[in-house]
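A common beginner's mistake is to predict each chain separately and then try to dock the pieces by hand. The better habit, illustrated here, is to supply every component at once so that their relative placement is modeled jointly.
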Amino acid sequence: MLATAHQAVTTASTLTNSAGKIGQVIAVVAVFMAILLIVFFAAGRATGRFQRPLTITIFLGPALVLLLVGLVIPAIRTFYLSLHGAAVKNPSYVGFKNYRWAFTDGAEQQVLLNTLLWLIVAPVVATAIGLLIALGVDRMKSQAVVKSLIFMPMAISFVGASIIWKFVYDYRDPAEAQDGLLSQVVMALGWRHPPNWISSHPLNNFLLMVIMIWVETGFAMVILSAAIKAIPDDVIEAARVDGAYGFRLFRSVQIPMIRSTLVVVLTTVMIATLKIFDIVRTVTGGNFGTNTLSNDMYSKTFVEFNIGRGAALAVIIFVAVVPLLVYNIVQLRKERATR
Amino acid sequence: MSATLEVEAAPAVRKGGKTEIRRAFSSRVASFAIILLTILWTVPTFGLLVTSVRPGADVSKSGWWTIFEHPHFTWDNYHQVLFVGGFGVTGGIIPYLVNSLAITIPATLFSLVFASMAAYCLAWVKFKGSDVVFFTIFALQVIPLQLSLVPLLRLFNDGAHIGSVPIFPDLNLGGTLYQVWIPHTMFAMPLAIFLLHNFIAQLPRDLMEAARVDGANHFRIFRTIVLPLITPALASFAIFEFLWVWNDLLVALTFGGGSPKALPITGRLAQLVGQYGSRWQLLTAGAFVAMIIPLIVFFALQRYFVRGLLAGSVKG
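With all components supplied together, the output reads:
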C-alpha cells in the first residue's frame, strides 16, 4: 500500500506517505524500548546461580551478535574469498595469486603508491592544521565561531562536498569566464593558462587530498582543543614563570602533555584515510591516475565482479591498518595500567 | 588563595619586557593566520550557498563570485528542488529527507542502546576475559565496511544455511528501512563501545558499590545511575553517529537497493547529479537542503560534544 501511494506523486499522498513512515518509525522505536524494559525487568528478578551469566548475556549479547555477524564473519569470509578466483559462484582456489597480482601489476602499483601518499600527507596535514588552530584559538575571542566554521565540513556528506569542490576545481578554457575558483585565483595572480586541475597527474592526487584535509581538520581540532584545555592551568603558569612563552611553551610543555591525544587523532585520521572511498569515487571515479585501494576494491568487487581480487585488496587494507591499531592498543594498555 | 594570587601576579612582572612585545606580536600573527584559515575553510561552502540562490542562466555563464558585481538573487531553485522536480525528475526531495530521518534516528538510537549496555558490562560486570573482549572490539574498528557488504547482503537476502539446514532465516527485508538500520548499527558498534566504555569506566567506584550494597541489580544501576550520568558522552556519540549515518551513501545504496522507499537524501542527490546534469543551481540547492539538518544537530548539541569526548579517550 505504501508503495502505490508513493507512485502517485501528488503532494497529498506524499504527505500521507511521509507521515505513515514517521509513524512506522515511532512504532518500531516504542516496541524496541518496551521489549528492552520488559527484558530488563524480567531478568532483574532472576536470582542465584544464573543471575550473573544472564546479566552478562543480556548486556553484552546483542553487541557481540551484531559484531560477529556484521564484521567478524564477513572479514573471515573475505580472506577466504581472496584466495579464490574471480567467479561469483563457487570460485576455484588460486592460492596467493590475487596478492601477487596486486603487488606486481602496473596499474595496481600506482594504486598502492597513491594510497601510501594519501596515508602520509592527508593525516599529517589535517592533524597539523587542527593542532595549530586548536592552540591559536585558545586565546581568541571569537573561538566558537572559528571552531564551528572549521568543523562544518564534518557535517557535510561527501556527495555534497563533491558538488562544493566542483566550483573550486572546475576547468574552463582560459578565454572564457571562469567558474572554478582555483583557476580564477591563479589567473588573477598572473598564470595565464592554468591546467585542467582534475586530470593533471600527479597534482590531482593532492587536490583530492585537500578535500579530505578540509573534512578531517575539524575533527582533529575539536579533540586536540579539548586536550589542550585539559592541561591544568598551574602547569602553564609555572612554565611561564620559568620564562616559556609562545613557541617554547608550545614545544616543551603543551605538545608533550597532549602527545597521547595527538597519536589517537593521527591514527584515527589514518584509518579513515585508508578506508576513504567517497571522495575519489565522486570526484574522479579513480580515473586520471587517482585511484586508491578502497575505491579500487569497490570497482573490482561491484563493477567488474572480480570477487577474488576485490577481496585481496580489502585484506591488504586491513593488514595496512593493523600496525596502527597495535600501536594504539599498546598506548591504551599503558594508560589503563597507570589509571 | 594567596598562592593563586602570587601565580597570577608572576607573569605581570615581565610586562613591558621584550618577551611581552614578541608575544603580543606572535599572538596577533597567529590570530591573523587562524582567521585566514577559517575564511579559506568556509569559502567553498559559501560558494555553494551563493550558487544555490543564483538564476540558472547566470550559473552557467559565470563564477559565483561575480554576484557581488551583479547582485541577482532568486528562491526559485529551492522551490523547484523541494516541491517540483522538473527536467525529467518527478517530485521534490522532501520524501527523501523523511527517509533520511527515518533511517538516521532509529540507527543512532539502536547503536547507542546496545553499545552503552555492552560498555557498562565490560567496565563494571567484569568477567574472565572481559579485557580481551574489549580490546578485540576496539580492534574491529579497522575492518573496512566495504568488506562486509557482500556477505551481509547475501545473509539478508538468502538467509544462512549449513548444507541445506537453515541456521538463519530469509527475513525478506529487501529494500526496507530495517535492512538499512541493522548494518548501520553493526558498523557503529566498535567505536561506540570504545568511547562509551572510556566514559563509563571513569564513574566513581564508591557510587557503584553503594548501589550494589543497597541491593540494586545491574539492570537497575544501569537504568537509574549510569544512563543519567553518561548523558554528555551519549550526546557526543549521538552527534557522531547522526552525522555519519545521515551523510552515508554506500550502506544506504547497498542495503536499501536504491528503492525510493528507503533512499536517503544523499542517495537522491547522487541520482540528481546524473539527472540534472549541468543544472548546478538545482544541485547546489539540493546539497544545501541536505546539509541543513546535520548542521542544526551539530550546533544544537555541540557543547556536549567536546565534554563527552574529553572525558573519554582524551587525557592530557
